[in-house]
Every structure is written in C-alpha cells, then in structure tokens.
Amino acid sequence: MRTEVVILQQPMSVCVPPNHEVTLRVQAIGTGSLRYQWFDKHQSEVVGGTEPELTVTLQRSGKYICRVSDLYYNYQFTEWVKVRILDEPGVSRTWRGEPHIVVHPISQTVKQGESFTLKCTAFGKPAPAYQWYRNGCIFTKQTTETIRIENASADTAGSYLCAVSNVLEERWSEAAEIEIAPPDQLPRPTLMATDKVALLIGNLNYNHHPGLMAPTMDVHELANLLQQLGFRVVSLLDLTLQEMQAAIDKFLQLLDHGVYAVFYYAGHGYEHSGRNYLVAIDAPRPYRTENCVCVQRVMHSMQERKAQLNVILLDTCRKWYKQKGPPSEIKPLAPLGNTVYGYATSEDAEAFEVQDGGKSTGIFTKYLNKHVLQPERVTRVLEQVSEDLGKDPLVRGRQVVEIRHTLAEPRALTDPVQASGHTMELRRRDACWKQANVLPGRRSLDFQRCGVQVDLCFSALFSNVLVVFGTVRNTNAVAQDCTLILESQPQMQDIFSAFGRSEEMDSLLVSIGETPDCTLRLCCLQRLQGSLVIKVKLHYTQKQTKERLIESKELDIGRPLIASCKLNQMKPVDRRQEAFVHSVDHNIRPPHHQNHPGAGRPHTRKAENRLQSSAKSTSMSSNEPEENDENDSNEFTM
User: Fold this and answer.
1) Per-residue pLDDT reduced to its tens digit, 137-159
2) What would the DSSP string read from start to end of 456-504?
3) pTM score
4) What are the residue numbers of the active site?
C-alpha cells in the first residue's frame, strides 16, 4: 500500500557565529526508500545535499529547504529554514546550542516625549525566541530582538529585561534602566536648520576601471543614519557622468537659506591641480577632468544657494594627477562660515575598503557611520573619525583623514529642524524629495482561472534600486505546486549580480513579515525612459488533470522612485569652463580581471589611468596616476 510522503520533523533555524558548523535535519516517512535534496536560497541544489542531514559552515547568513521524494514521484518540501550568521564574539567549544546572549540592552536617559530603542541578540540552536519584561511584568507583544518605545514618559521609565529561550534553556539579559531626564537638564537648542537634505552617490561597477565592493553597504548604512537625524536622503548607485550632473542639479534645487546640506560620494577619484574629481562609471581610460565631476564646483554651487551648512564627505582616493600641482584649498564665493570638507585620505594618498565582519566597507565610512549620530559639532565628529581610523592597524601610516572647514558656529548634523517662517520652501522641497522616494503601493493580482491571488509589495534599498516581492495566495486548491516568476519590461540591469554582491544585497532586504515566493531586483531606475511594467508569470499544476499550466498578468507601476525625476532627460551641465583637458592620447592597458580581496585586505579606491607605453613609463610616472594595486600580492591581511 502506497502512502504519501509526510514530513515528521522540520529542520530548525539557527543563529550562530561565522564559521560555526551547523547541521540541519529533516525526518520523513513514505513508501519505500526516500530521497532527499537540499536547496539554497537561490533554489539551487546544494552539492552533496542528498541526505536527511545537511552540515554547513557559513560566513554569511543563508536559507535552505529540503525536498523529500519517493520512488513513485511523490514529494514534499520542508519549510524554509535560516542559518543566521552574527558577527559577534563566538561561543565556547562545548556550546550545545542553548541561548548565548551577545548583545545586551543598554541603560539610557531620554527626554520626555522622545523615543528610545532597546536590543537583545543571542546565538542559539535552534534560533531563540524573545520576550521582553518591563518592571518585572511581561511586556505584551514585545517578542522581537529590538523594541522601540515611542513618546517616553514616566510610565515608560523603569527596568527592562529580555528572556531568551529555546528548547534547551532560557537565559536572561542584563537589565537596562530607562530614566526620564528632568526638564531643567534638557539642553536648549540655539542652532537650528530650516530643513536637512542629503545626496549620497556610490559608484562600484565601472566600465573601464576596476570595480569596487564597499559603496553598496556604505551608502545604504549612511543613508539610514542620516534619515534618523531628520535628513531627506536621496541615495544613488552607479551613475554615469550625465546622471551625476543631473542628480547634483536636482539636489541643488533643494538648497535654500537655513538648510543643512550633505553631499557624500564613495567610489574612484583623484586630485589634479588642487581640485578633487569624482570618476563616473562611464569615464574612459585614460580619463580627463571633463569626464569627471569636480568637487570644488559642487561646493561652489552649494554656496551659491546660501545653505546654512554645506558638508562634503568624500570616501575616495586623492592621488595627484600631476604631482607638482598646488595643494587643494577651499575656495568659497566669499568668507562664508558654513563649509566643511571631510576627506577620507590626505593629498596624493589612497583610500581603502576592506571586508569587515562579512561585509565590504570603506574604512573612512566605517568610522563615519560609528560617530555620525553623536550630538557633536560636525567637525568634532570628523575628528573622532580621524582618531579611530588612525588607530586601525590595516591602514596606519597609509590613510589619514583630512578635515577642512570654515565653520564659524558649532553646528551639528543633529541640530533640530525649525521650519516656521519657511513653510512654502519646505513644501516645495518636500514635493521634490517625494518625487524621488515614493514607492508603488501594495497590489494584488487575481488569477481567476486557477483561483490564485498574487500579492506584490515593494521596497526601496536605494533611490534607484527597487525590490519587488511576490507572494502566492492559493484560495481554492485548484492549483497545486505553484511557481512564481517576476520579470520587468523593459528589463533593468542588475548591478549586483557579480559574485559576493548578490548576497550582500540580500542582507539589506527589509523584512516584510514573511518569506516571499519570488523577488525581483530592479536597478538603475534613473535610465528608465517610460513606464515600468511588472510581468507576473504563474506556473501551476491543475489538480484534476495534472496538467502543467501557465498564466500571466502585467502591472504598470509607472516611473517609480528616481525614475520620476527623468534625470536622463535633463540638459547636461556646461562644463567647458571647468574642464582642463589633459593632452594624454596614448594607447592604454586593457582592463584586467577584478579579483576582490579577502577579509581584512585593504583595497584601494584609485581608478587606473596609466599609459601602456613602456618607453614613456619613466617620464610619465610623475604626471599620471599609478597603476591600481587591487591585486597586489604584497597587500597585507588581518
């Protein structure tokens, strides 16, 4: 007598440190000998994963599912399980899997009416559950690692604890004491902004220069931190020269009296004749200044808009294009005390990125993100960044932060916003900002022939990167074994398809409360010429006839995010007065294969621009940037 395949024991999710061996187990019954096949989060077969147990050792989080089948082609899938990797101090060799708390909640003193956040994180096999307590009583519905309490008051003050448990044991966190600051201790802000705006650009996939890894995470994390400080943020990846100029022009339109403005760039760059240049992804090799964006011209334009605070942060190299050129200097329109430059490195030096805890990061931005939320004047924040970077053994003696400013007041990025008297300008900036950041709403598509509903929701990782999540809702069981495929028309380039980048992007996806059946990543939305159409293809088996069928639907979502700004249709900036065209017109060396360094290995952000002619290598070496050293075998590792 034949019986269906039945899963008796599902594999369990775990939370472990990097490189910790984990075994996932499934138990099932059925007719005859059962076969097992494990799949990873990309739905690819795991090599050697043909047993009830799967043992893995990971550096980054991963998801797995197992298919159990019999000789009669009956099969069942387990539930998806996650192997979550936390880059925290590890556990002892005798650890059995009981909860091991690595992040305890921190005591805080908060102001009346403000919000505060508490976090507790633990390793566990299986992954632990969380339950928060306040003043010794269960805190209802607070069962996640991180909790956020709004509108702090005397009722929310007290002692907070978190109970962390799994089937093996229960552990308690340290207590976090929350106090409400008395009114007489509250600082009275004297310096305010009428608004805060920020433009963040990260270039990583270059057409003619070695690619970079870190700008993705650097831009994403800094954008989140600036948003916490009340900034209206536009974050963009992989821009051509025309797109960079158009984005900067849009950014300048947001600046006005009283506004705090931050311009951040991560990518390849260099210095020439005392000016800094940002290399667009389409810059040729060798490049000219006319192929790049001049930083000083950006600051000049920002000052023309009479913003209250202008901050430019550059995580890029500053190797001299001509070593005899004058040192760079701030050249404001007038003696305006409102300008801050934060350079990742000093003149004629390189800036580095490394693998840090399983993610790529620029060393400058790593420490910038550490301090940017501090309620200190912006120059003091950069001084703290400089101090931390100077202690980093990876770049000690090779990279030094440089700070230049003309601040006359101790203004901070944490200064509050006071918009009274500037309502009209605020509404204009709000409309302009929303144009580049509003997401399509959640949609549901009904496939009436098979009785299936597909829910689509959207998330913006960057202002030009949209992620579409698709989830199947089977309402009447007419359709079985549903498979969902999402496509776009036109097809958008996936700039994260290279090795290592897709996993890093997956780690950024915002949780939507459940695991979607399909995910579609749409990048470079600034190049969209018209409306974007999402094509939804549903593959399923008709229950009665066992026939495999396909149904399709389309959803027009217009021009989402930055696409609505039509950057590709804006008139390019006339840079003829700015460009100093170098008379370099020799054959150049073909691009070499990019091999990204391992964990802890410094990786320069200097674009290649060296000439191929060996006869001129000596005479030209003082005028042209040196060869990129991304693959230099002499680079040290941690």
Assistant:
1) 999 999 999 999 999 998 999 99
2) EEEEEEETTEEEEEEEEEESSSSEEEEEEEEEEESPPP-TT-STTHHHH
3) 0.62
4) 268, 317
